[in-house]
Structure formats: structure tokens, C-alpha cells
Amino acid sequence: MTWNIFGHDGAVNYFKRQCEPSNTRHAYLITGPEGVGRLTLAKAFVKALNCQEPPAKYDFCDKCQACRQIEAEAWPDLTILRPIENARDIKIDQVRQMQQSLALAPYQSQWRVVIIPDFQNATVAASNALLKSLEEPPARAIIILTADARENLLETIASRCGILRLRPMSVDATAKVLQNKLELEVNEAKKIAHLAGGRVGTAIHFAQNQDMLEEYHDTLSQLHEILPETKRARLQYAETVSKRKGNQRENVSGLLSVWLTFWRDVMIAHSGADLPIVNLAQSDTVKTIASQLSLPQIEVILKALEKGLEQINANVNSRLVLENILLNIPRLKV
Ligand SMILES: [Zn+2]
């Protein structure tokens, strides 16, 4: 096992070669579905660049102060740029601020590194601002972007990065990781690996939070139940959701995030693209739904969901948001 990362040997070997100073680039892009291990890989690369007691060349110990601080995101020469609270995207001001700090020499290592997860969510203005850093990179800086797919970034950005695409592992391989790492019993491991669609990070998360696993499953089932229903039944469903206990905004935004994974799968199934779907356990339903819709119809649904999540962040009434989305989805056979 290399770098303690499962199932991405090719990617690990690539980054090991990048540790050789003459190979190191100023920008990388790691793509793949959420939960597949993009951020874990980015951090492992930073550890390999900085480990104080590497057990082998371009390896890391995961125990020294550098490794521990990188893991805890407290290493002075590492910045992880995330959206500010309640926002879904990276703003231009954050990029500008990052660029100022990136121009300074590193505090205690060879490189100053910035990791920007989910850069597909950055605003166009923020993307254009970042482009400047990629065109004229500061001497001792490395920028690592992660995204769901290269196609969702400006091509001018992607083309300046060393690109690594992480694919989910097979269900069996994921199940093996769960069995070895968490000592799960074989059938349980297979069930969880299936639901997580071969995304190891997601699978481990589900295995450690059984409640989340059930909730995820429930949320998808509710979507499947509501698809053949009338407007009236859908509005009743929105009312029921709005009366659930807990924070209404968080409830609805959690629900929409899960639905979004399903509809992205429908889009993939419809396009026939060679991309792995997330909800493997629902692959039959995904195909059935995809066959009843046109591409523009699927796009309308995806846009409605994405807009809905933004509206909830902007404090729009979450029940109205949910109603609007449900009315945007045609009646379908499941
Ligand atoms: Zn170390």
C-alpha cells in the first residue's frame, strides 16, 4: 500500500514523481466524484513534499510534526481555500487575498501550497482571477485544485494544470477496504460499498455513521416515491418535509444535495458518457428515469436543484424552494 491511499496507485505514483524538484509543477487539478479521495490525495502530496522523517524517498511518515500539521490543516505553508460560511462558491476577494499570501516566500519549507477544493463551484470572476496566478505563478508556489470534472472548469485553467482523474473503485475493492480497515463483516461491507458507489471516503463515512447511511437511503427512496405523483401529492410531501423536526433549512438542503447526486447520475446515463455513476445501487432506476427525459429536461431539473441550494443559503423559504423544484420535475414512471 502506498501513501496509505487505497485504489489510486497510478495517481500516487504520479505525485511521487512530481516530488522530484525538476518535475514539480505550479498547478495541479485532481478530478473525480465527491468522496473519492481528492483532498486526501492532495494532502498526501503536501506531506510527501514536507515530511521530516520520510521512511523512503518521496514517502511520508504521517507522524512527524509536518505530517500532523498538514493533516490538521495547520501547516503554515498550506492554505486550504474553502467558501466562507453559508456560501457555496469561492469568491473573487478570497482568491485575491490568497494571491497576496502566495507571493510571499514560504515560512519553513520549499513550497507554499494552496488547495482549493471543488473549484467547479467558484464564481466566474474568481476563476478569472485565479487564471492570473496560473499564467504567472510565483516562484515557490503550488496550487492544487479539485473538481468533479475537468469540463466544469474554464479550459484556460484546466490546460495549465497537471491533471489527475480519480475514478471510484470497484464495489468489491471498496468492500475489502472496509473489511480490512474497519473490520466490517463481509455482507455489511458490500452493502455500504454499493451504496457509496465505490467512493472509499464516502463508504468509510457511511460505515462510521450508520444514521447517515439510512438517511441517505431514505432520502433517495422519497424521491423515487414522489416521481410518479401528482402536483397535489408533491405539495403535500413538501409540507410534510417542512414539518420535520430540526432545522428546516438544513433538512431541505441535505435532501436536495442527495437528490442532486441522483440527477447527475441521470444526466450521465442519458448522455451515455463513460463516467461512473454515484448511486450504483439505484442504477436501474437511474436508467429508467433517463430514458423518459430529454437532455434539456434533465438540465432544467439540475439547474432547479442547484439554484434551490443557493436560494436556501440566501435564506429563501426552504418550503417554497422545495415546492418549486418538485413542480419542475415531470411525472415519471419508476
Ligand atoms: Zn512525516
Notes on the protein architecture:
The protein has 334 residues and is of the alpha/beta class. It folds into 2 domains: 9-165, Rossmann fold (3-Layer(aba) Sandwich), CATH 3.40.50.300; 209-328, Zinc Finger, Delta Prime, domain 3, CATH 1.20.272. Helices cover 54% and strands 7% of the residues. The chain is built from 15 helices and 5 strands. The chain has a 5-stranded parallel beta sheet with strand order 2-3-4-1-5, with helices on one face. Helix 2 (38-50) packs antiparallel against helix 3, helix 4 packs parallel to helix 5 (124-135) and helix 14 (295-313) packs antiparallel against helix 15. The longest helix has 24 residues, at 248-271. The two termini are 42 Å apart. The mean pLDDT is 91. Bound molecules: zinc ion. Zinc ion binds next to helix 3. The site of zinc ion (ZN) has 9 residues, from helix 3.
Give the helices and strands, then pairings:
Elements: H1 9-18, E1 27-31, H2 38-50, H3 65-71, E2 78-80, H4 92-102, E3 112-116, H5 124-135, E4 141-147, H6 155-158, E5 162-165, H7 171-182, H8 186-195, H9 200-208, H10 210-226, H11 231-242, H12 248-271, H13 283-291, H14 295-313, H15 318-328
Parallel strand pairs: 1-4, 1-5, 2-3, 3-4
Helix pairs in contact: 2-3, 4-5, 7-8, 7-9, 8-9, 9-10, 10-12, 11-15, 12-13, 12-14, 14-15
